[in-house]
Amino acid sequence: HTAELQSRFDARIDAQGKIEPQDWMPEAYRKTLVRQISQHAHSEIVGMLPEGNWISRAPSLKRKAILLAKVQDEGGHGLYLYSAAETLGTSRDQMLDALHSGKAKYSSIFNYPTLTWADVGVIGWLVDGAAIMNQVPICRCSYGPYARAMIRICKEESFHQRQGFESLMTLMKGTPAQREMVQDAVNRWWWPVLAMFGPPDADSPNSAQGMRWGIKRISNDELRQKFVDATVPQAQILGVTLPDPELQWNEERQQHAFGAIDWDDFWAVVNGNGPCNKERLATRVKAHEDGRWVREAALAHARKQRSRAMK
Ligand code: 3HC
User: Fold this and answer.
1) Cβ-contact 239, 172 below 8 angstroms
2) What is the pTM of this model?
3) Measured between alpha carbons, how far is 198 from 188 in angstroms, rounded to an integer?
């Protein structure tokens, strides 16, 4: 009987169909989706911290309002994605325990410090730019709830990227010190953003199966290349140089060649030894502990409501 279910599942995947929560699915398909969607949600929630650090220091009310809206969006993306993961049978508590215990991953890119105001613009321009590259193909993911969550999230992500680029344009029209602040931020973020797309395809244990199941539509290296090719002209408009002496256009390949990424640094960050990993996780654990009373009150209220309804 399982063989029949498996072949029906395979046929649906091969026909680019959607798998819905109530459909039969191989346990390994369910497991890898819980892994990816929960870690994607963790990335959104932890991602609020680096830029949230600048909400109280934004240089104007306009910039503060924009940044507030962006950080709030990231929080919403996280809750959206936790809900998508819950349709696969995992619970919010299980996912948060995995994050807080260091068992679950979240995007490496959020383990770097935001040292100046220009970092906020560079995060919008480069990090959200990379996130869009990575998230648009997931709108075509075979798992329905994840694909649908991505459509809404990608719309908001475009605003994030545009506001970042616009704020950098303003700084680049400012004083030499402001221009230098932007260039310094680009120098610090460029390589970690390229690594954020994930390890090279040859070192990516989940990619082959992810592609077979229609979860991953474009490979890590291909998305990374697309991002470099799209970002080089933007850097020229901005007037910043990208910190890679080997970056150059290759006419016959119609794409940019670029230098080697430091994968040892990437894996050190992924394995918890980046500049801010401990601080980011401690901040999340503290927020969760401090919020315990709210969860308990909400549950007590819900129990009271239920018992009233039963009378
Ligand atoms: N940071 C941390 N871990 C990473 C990583 C990164 N940048 N890139 C890869 N890894 C991990 C993978 O999770 C996997 O570990 P696991 O098996 O324990 O989960 C391991 O490294 C090997 O990588 P693979 O390429 O084999 O793994 P995947 O096939 O899952 O590809 C991925 C990795 C491209 C990140 C994929 O999981 C994915 O597309 N995830 C959804 C998108 C996502 O999470 N994006 C995070 C960006 S942040 C963001 O979107 C917020 C925005 O608002 C800025």
Assistant:
1) yes
2) 0.96
3) 18
Instruction: Provide the pLDDT for residue 237.
Output: 98
Q: Closest Cα to atom 37, ligand 1: which residue?
A: 36
**Phi, then psi, of 257 in degrees rounded to 5:** -80, 145
CA distance 238 to 234: 6
The answer, yes or no, to whether any atom of ligand 1 lies below 6 A from the CB of 196, is yes
ipTM reported for the complex, 2 dp: 0.97
281 within 8 A of 102, measured Cβ to Cβ? yes
Q: Are 247 and 232 in contact (CB under 8 A)?
A: yes
Instruction: Name the DSSP letter for residue 274.
Output: S
- Helices (H) and strands (E) counted in the chain, each on its own, are 13, 2
Residues 203-212: pLDDT tens digits? 999 999 999 9
- 210 ligand 1 Cβ < 6 A: yes
Taking the C-alpha atoms of residue 115 and residue 113, their distance in angstroms, rounded to an integer, is 6
311 pLDDT tier (thresholds 50, 70, 90): confident
